[in-house]
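COMPLEX REQUEST
Ligand: iron/sulfur cluster
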Amino acid sequence: MERKKVLVIGGGAAGMSSALELAERGVEVYLVEKEKEIGGRAATYCCKATDECNRCAACLVLQEKDKVAQEPLIQVYTSARVEEIKKRGNGYQVKILYDGDDAVTLEVQAVIVATGFDPYDLSRRSEFAYGVEKNVITGLELEKAIKEKGGLVAAFGSDIKKIGFIQCVGSRDLSIGNGYCSRVCCMYAAKLAKIIRHELPDAEINIFYMDFQSFGKCFSEFNKELRETDKIKFIRAIPSKIYGFPYDRLTVRYTDSLVGKQTEDKYDLIVLSLAITPSRGSRDLAERLGITLDKYGFMQGGAEGIFAAGVCEGPKDIPQTIGHAKAAAGEAYRYLFS
Ligand SMILES: Cc1cc2nc3c(=O)[nH]c(=O)nc-3n(C[C@H](O)[C@H](O)[C@H](O)COP(=O)(O)OP(=O)(O)OC[C@H]3O[C@@H](n4cnc5c(N)ncnc54)[C@H](O)[C@@H]3O)c2cc1C
Ligand code: SF4
Ligand code: SF4
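STATUS: Structure written out below.
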């Protein structure tokens, strides 16, 4: 009997996990990734171990990437996009453009969409001075800089003495239509703060928050440890303005909700925990594949033989993404053999 074939769109943690699950069950997979390499966002994250592993799961993604490279039933197309997709018989005919001018037409019986997320677009939020002040960065940029340079000092210099994390930027904010919680940024900010404290024991680290989202017992304990052992301070306020002058530190203006007073404070580095939003192009893809979207643009139910996996369906951390993607692959498998 000819092998069943599945197209997986997006080669991040979700796409790779779905592809591996299907391949392990004997299904042939075409994995299409728009970037030059598979791995998705999480392949750029740093290890958050201090003297011990802090269970951030970033290394799981690198392991999945190695497994994909060794799996003969997965054919990877990078720098690739789905140019055309149409229903044909019991499946779909797909035209893929990859590596510049190359094209291939494939027949598949099911499709898994795993297009992930983009960070919240800050272009209309001038109050944070992002793109104006070089030491105002995003969580994604901090992850990448620490991974590439090996530490905060190597990445930003030895003058960094006071660091602020600003939570919920673009999340849980009905004034901009994003009422949902991005679910991962409290966890990664806390773990990043912990490795910075480990590298720079004398640095002052403050986390600005609305209310600290804690998922599960482990994280509540981690949070307690941050306050007590690592001396990280939590300020219940979202800053209203950040500005700088040449040769001066960054000024952060905020109203502390506990004291009720407007305050200005100086920082050397500000990290914005941006909302997870559906990736650009996912709306167009959803229309072409008959996928319904929720009110924020995350993918819900698909048409016949179409399944959504990972963060394109809603915010998740890496372990949840992998679990969701394996479940989506299981559903696709049952569909193929029902
Ligand atoms: C700053 C930050 C730090 C984080 N740190 C952690 C952490 O320490 N631990 C943790 O557990 N979680 C962390 N997360 C969450 C983690 O990023 C996600 O769980 C994970 O990336 C989800 O994987 P995904 O495959 O669903 O999406 P993505 O990682 O976004 O992957 C999607 C892939 O699809 C590709 N793609 C998109 N559209 C198309 C298209 N049309 N055609 C082809 N390819 C396409 C993209 O290029 C990408 O490679 C963090 C999130 C952020 C924002
Ligand atoms: S990447 Fe994260 S999970 Fe892996 S060893 Fe480092 S801290 Fe632990
Ligand atoms: S996870 Fe934390 S920072 Fe992110 S939106 Fe939810 S409460 Fe805000």
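REMARKS: The radius of gyration is 22 Å. The chain has a mean pLDDT of 93.
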